[in-house]
Amino acid sequence: MTESIRETICETVRARRALSNAAIAASDAAAVAAIMTDDVTVAVAGGPVLNGREASRLAFAEQMGEAGFRGYVRTPDVVEVAPDGCLATERGRWVGRWQVRLRVQEQHGTYVATWRRVGAAWCVASEIFVGAR
Predict the structure, then answer these.
(1) What is the DSSP string of 57-78?
(2) CA 73 → CA 4, 7, 81, 84, distances in Å?
(3) Residue 16: which H helix or E strand, with range?
(4) What is the pLDDT of residues 34-59, one digit of tens each?
(5) Which contacts (CB < 8 Å, 24+ apart) does range 2-6 have?
(6) What torsion, rounded to 10 degrees, do the Cα atoms 110, 11, 121, 45 define?
(7) Residue 133 pLDDT > 80, yes or no?
(8) What does the pLDDT read at residue 101?
(9) Which of 114, 75, 70 is nearest to 96 (CA)?
């Protein structure tokens, strides 16, 4: 794989993450789930492990329906591409915000996501979110 192809994949993964963040900001659970593989696994910080795109969509829809939910932002620090160009790993930081009475409260931490090429698109195959104290 050429360096140019590797850079294009990294840019694509970062752009897809930005789309995911925008979908969360728009409270669009279907759009968040649309960038996931059918068999995605998501380990929620301090919470359950979600198996499958539909489970993730439902979890996002539930949170987005909460009056105090203000969203998540995931910021990639590093994207690495496997030598065969079929997988990529993203590592970064996340923050979640909730309005509680007159204050915005935050949770934050780190995450790692695995991206897999599905046809012509790059999709999240797994995510692990770890909360910071």
Answers:
(1) HHHHHHHHTSTTEEEEEEEEEE
(2) 28, 23, 22, 29
(3) helix 3-25
(4) 999 999 999 999 889 999 999 999 99
(5) 5/85, 6/81, 6/85
(6) 10
(7) no
(8) 87
(9) 70
Architecture of domain 3-131: Roll (3.10)
Give backbone dihedrals phi and psi of 80, rounded to 5 degrees, phi first. -120, 145
Residue with tokens 């934050």: 108
pTM (two decimals): 0.93
Q: Which amino acid is at 60?
A: F
Q: What mean pLDDT do residues 76-86 have?
A: 96
d(CA 82, CA 84) in angstroms, rounded, equals: 6
Nearest Cα to Cα of residue 32 among 76, 87, 91, 73: 73
Sign of CA dihedral 116, 111, 6, 18: positive
User: CA–CA distance from 111 to each of 11, 20, 58, 117 (Å)?
Assistant: 18, 15, 21, 20
Sequence ranges of the domains in the chain:
3-131
Contact 131, 109 (CB under 8 A): yes
Buried b (16+ CB within 10 A) or exposed e, 39-53: ebbbeebeeeebebb
